[in-house]
## 1
Amino acid sequence: MTAYSLDDDGVVVIIGSGAGGGTLAHELARRGIDVVLLEAGKHLTAEDFVNDEWGGYEMLSWLDKRTSSGTWRVAKDHPLTPSWSCQVVGGTTTHWSACCYRFIADELRARTVYGEIPGTTLIDWPITLDELNPYYDLAEAKMGVTRTNGLPALPANNNFKVMHAGATALGLNVTTGRHAINTIPYDGRPATIQDGFTITGDKTGARWSTLNVELPKGLATGKLELRAQSRAVFIEHDAAGKASAVLYVDAEGVTHRQKARAVVLAGNCVESSRLLLHSKSARFPDGLANGYGHVGRHYLRHLIQTVWSTFDKPVHMHRGEIMGGMIDDFVRHDPARGYAGGFYIEMNSMGLPTTAAFMEPGWWGRDFASVIEQYANMAGIFMSGEDMPQADNRITLTDELDAYGVPVANIHYDDHPNDLKMRSHGYKVLTSIHKAAGAKRSVEAPAYPASHNLGSNRMAAKAEDGVLDGNCRAWEVPNLFIADGSNFATGGACNPTLTIVALAIRQADFMARQMAAGEL
Amino acid sequence: MSAITAHKDPKLPPPVALPEDASWVGALSLFDAQAAETLVAVVRTLYPHDGLPERIYRRTVFHFDAMASKAPAAAQVFAEFIDMADSALPLPFRELSEGYRVQVLKTLEASAPFRLVQRSAVRFLYDDVEVWQAFGYEGASVHLGGYVNRGFNDLDWLPDPPAGV
């Protein structure tokens, strides 16, 4: 096992082992770069995982307290768990449903294409789709995405048959979509057995995760040291203003200082912003890399919502991969719809425990009971749409300290009028698809705790507009990087993981080039 | 309802076996009989599935009791809730008809104690394998080979999509 000394200031320290951090760790290590990967959670294996919605949630989730405020429904329904990510080796890739869609060119030019929208802080990305596409290609190959690299699509399951019948009747373009789930054996991993439990850890390994792909490959290089149950609590910098060390607390509660050549934050949006805000110094009195005040701001979480419908006959939506369906008719920006941006429609299945919990939190009585009793005849359909960045939708520190002495984060989010217009249109479309397939009753379910957390340390073409440059490097700290979704300049509509992975591979190229040139 | 069999993951403990008579409250570590029976009546009023046997609602309250035993703050909130529910009308909550029970719960809906009880009821009631069986959720599948050969695409009342769609 590779082990680096705490005083080794030649290592890149990465905080977080999920889609961004876990991928970057492997990509740097295979380029011969020394990496220490700190992960707050435990190192679990497929043996530990359970096929159980609540069991998996409690085993994998980041359950430390957060608070919430603003007009978003989540603040009412889930006030202390407004955001949903994982605290485990592999991060949220142990939980994700593996949808792999690319940004479209217009989404990377959101400010230019959507125009001036009052109340928003829209910007264009500092990179173009042409720059990103080669990395999307690499990401799809490493992840084994269906319908790429000759890999077959997911087969239609029961829930998809409902979605397909409705969408086809309405003339929409519907397929099973693209997923980092094996339909045939690939990269030493088996084909899916349609178990339906990708989100509780994936016991078979048919679905790509950093736990089962990137980290084993990274460790095999001999250049990567993974330290699980190591909670980063502070980032230090030297007299020149460069990041120099990460303080972290191990499983025994002992605090260590790991010196660093470069530091990468990849702890998911909320934790990365929280850590920067908390890492104050005389030089950075408002938090590290926060001279322009953008750290924590422009927080995005996508317009996520589901429609659950009941039918006369059984669906058994829980059988099989849970999000194997996609409609892309509403992805492109179309001003005629009356709002900016677009959305993907995706199939959505949940088991009885979480369908009951998330269909309409707070709903009780005979009406609810009459709907949930029809679980076997229920189908689900979902959307992920672009929400508008706003300066005051942000992560801040509260006065309450957690067990490690770091302030608890608050997430504030007010819905923008554009968000509400898209949500309303989206519910109508989702419901119409199920009605066209024969639905008896459709229920508009609100967003659950945010799992697409984006934008709160965004990249921008100018330091005045964002925390990071186009290489996801802090404008103000030249050896500090971000490798999670908080680096997105705007949210786009699609599930973010494929883009996080593509950006991490691109970042590895950049960092390796900088190091070879003696500049990092 | 088609014939299905619900499975909990074999790594998880089986449902707790409670006595079928009034002595079930002896299995609780914190709630007394009055508190426990009141909560059973509350959970049944919140989620009235007439076909479900009493033991399932009792198991839900058994989970409340386990929660409250581990967290004094939660125990306090459950106690407050029971006081509120029992003092709303001239009869104790569990002696009220369903219509009055609903009326009482509606007056409490905005309170923090109601929220804890209602959310905990959803959390535990619909996680009960006997409820899964009743409502057609089969649950854990990897230990049975997934659903690939057990009906993941057996819906036959709509046209099959074209291959490779």
## 2
Amino acid sequence: MTKSSLSFVRRDMLAPQSAPVTERGAVKWLRENLFSSIGNSVLTILGLLVLFWIVQASLPWLLNGVWQANSLGECRTIIAATAGEGASGACWAMIAQRWNQFMFGFYPKTDYWRPILSFALMFVALTPVLYYGLRRAAMLMVGTVGVLAVLSLALVQTDGWHDALVAAVMLGLFAVAAIMPKKLVWVTLVFPAVGFFLLWGGSVWGPVGTLFGFGIWVAIWLVLQSRLGVVVPAAIGLVAASLWWLVLQTSVTTALHGIAPLGLTAIDSDQFGGFLLAFVIGVTAISASLPIGILLALGRQSDMLLIKTLSVGFIEFVRGVPLITMLFTASLLLQYFLPPRTNFDLILRVIILVSLFASAYIAEVIRGGLAALPRGQYEAADALGLDYWQAQRLIIMPQALKISIPGIVSSFIGLFKDTTLVALVGLADPLQGITKIVRADIAWKGIYWEPFIFVGAIFFLFCFGMSRYSMYLERKLKTDHR
Amino acid sequence: MALAADTPKDSFRLSMLIYDTRFRAITIQVIVLILVLLGIGWLVNNTIENLAAKDKDINFSFLFSRAGYDIDQQLIPYTNDSTHGRALVIGLLNTLVVAFFACIFATLIGVFAGVLRLSKNWLVGRLMTVYVEVFRNVPLLLWILLAFVIFSETMPEPKDFKTTQAMVDAGTTPAAQMILFDSVAITNRGTNIPAPLLERPLGGTEAFGVPINFSVLATLLVIAGSIWVNYLVRRRAKAVQEDTGIRPVTWWKSLLILIAPTLALLIAMGFHLEVPAFPMGENGVSKGFNFVGGINVAHSFTALLIALSLYHGTYIAEAVRSGILAISRGQTEAAYALGLRPGRTMSLIILPQALRVIIPPLISQFLNITKNTTLGVAISYLDLKGTLGGITLNQTGRELECMLLMMLIYLILSLLISSGMNVYNTAVKLKER
């Protein structure tokens, strides 16, 4: 090839140019994400129309909202005065006025410090479960909850000395968290009794007696465990504790109450209501249903035919009937199945049946987790010489529970949402019970969007929060495929 | 010298019941059995004592006595003179009908939202995410109550649809208008929809107190027959394709077979729709107080249907989304490499695999829909819970019998649905060794 055959050779580099305008910045993003094809463009335009329609319908209504009024009529007058005749507007004043009822139902106003303190203690009790022995996390949690509790107490206006009491309790717990965070576990252990005592009131000796029964159980187990293994001392302890609970406790606590009548005003169950009720039922049922669900799942996996049959029968029965029938069983049928003249609290009955209901679903979720474990894990545990409970506790459950976190949390979310159904057996839940009462009030007759949006927003906040937390937990615990 | 084959003769000690794994399982099971029997005995004994104390017995004869209450929505004839047993059947049918339609609508909404959530379109994807998260994280009861309140408190009264003399004179129209080409009117008392009517019905008969309508039966038979013939045509087309490699064109045959016979039958029977309307007086002035003709659908049904469909639609959307995401991208690429077009790839490669993942949660959602129809009790929808577990229970005072019967019926329903699911699961399970 000769030199002359080359007609043109570039001797200097071209200056770099920026990408064409359709391939960069917002235009590129729009093209790729909204208008990539004709179908996509049509979808985008339809989506914009829907969005526009929603905003147009709701934005003026939200912006014209009124926060200070005493009745729906007054709200409408204010809206007509400020936004012009015929304008629509939300009447949030209803929420401002009925806030306490939505939160506490008919709980006596002077005793609001009790649910607030027990709600705060619940988070303190949760702290060791979530961050065992982590000083900073425990301090942060207890401190935040304490400040929030005192603030919310100041907002619902109770008298000074209960504020001081709550502040002192929270301060003390903060000190415990700061000095020996591991000791907070004791709060977790006694919280069920303390929470019950705070919420329902009555004599202090009842919950103390119940706790004492558990104390007997643990003491017998600790003493005999070294000689007799795990199962037998547990059974002996249970028998002893049951003897205490069924035979001795009532007379002893009555006597003690006669000597030292300590206690709080007793609150009837029909005074519970609003989100207080939803939380009491939700939290108790959630914490009770997880251990029962684990036991049921293990029973379903068991080699023992009888145990397996019983577990399968229970799980399939509960999953086959609607929750409402269980609730009506609690309110109508339980009186037939219990000894004559026993009549215990409706909330307690509902909690028991809701827990059993949820535990069947959780059992199925955990069974999925157990089934996902490779067979080798079980065999490795056997090869190490671990017995059944050790293998479950150290090898199987940590992995199976980790796999089933999303399912467990979505069961919890379902359970929390289902607490609204207790309205159908006559309890004043925030949705049906309290909203009905508010809407029956002559001042607020005809209001419907505001209470439903308010209650829905709070449920959304908690359920969405739980589902996001479970996603975070799932990512945090993911140890494989990094 | 002792041989190795000689097993040491250990005598049986009592402690072996607990510490020897050969016996421990039996010990535990015997103890559990005794406890369970004791527990059952205790419950039964309590029940007998309680029943005796209240002077009651277990007796299902109330099912054959007069019910004495009315039910708005009834699929088979029922009056307040009918028995409680018949009220139970009406309730069960109401449960099933709302569950059936809710399953269909929830599936449609769910597939729509699930596919759109995966769409490359950013805006539509976000809108669908918002829909799914909002509806999923708020109790179903709220949606039911809200839908019911909106229908029964914001919709116009029937009289707002009337044309008065003053309106005719002034040339104006009534305050409220019917929708969907003047065929549907939503009032605060219910939704009036057109009723399908036949001029020349085929008659009917009654068997075991259940009316059998020959016209409906004939239509169903013809539809089933056309589906079967269509299946034959498609099978033949497939055989031809296997033989020759060329698939005969079938779409127009299928269309004809599926539509023509049913259409012919309906025309022969004189099918027409009766549109609800006010009776017309002179010069276009309406008379009467409410709509005449058509079917009045109670708001409790509509609200329950809408709420169930929207709420469970979100769960189905998630199932569809995860089903499609579960199929690895390599499957699509392999199909393209084989030269399949996108439509065929979807129908032959992706869908059959995705359905295996989608169908089980879908069916469990159907189960949940069926169980959640009981929430209709909050808006007085008379389903099984409303009739048997509601009014019948309160009237007769037989809590034990009513609740047991109701639980049994729900249990049978769910076992039927879940056994259907098991059959499907075994059919599509990956056959691997």
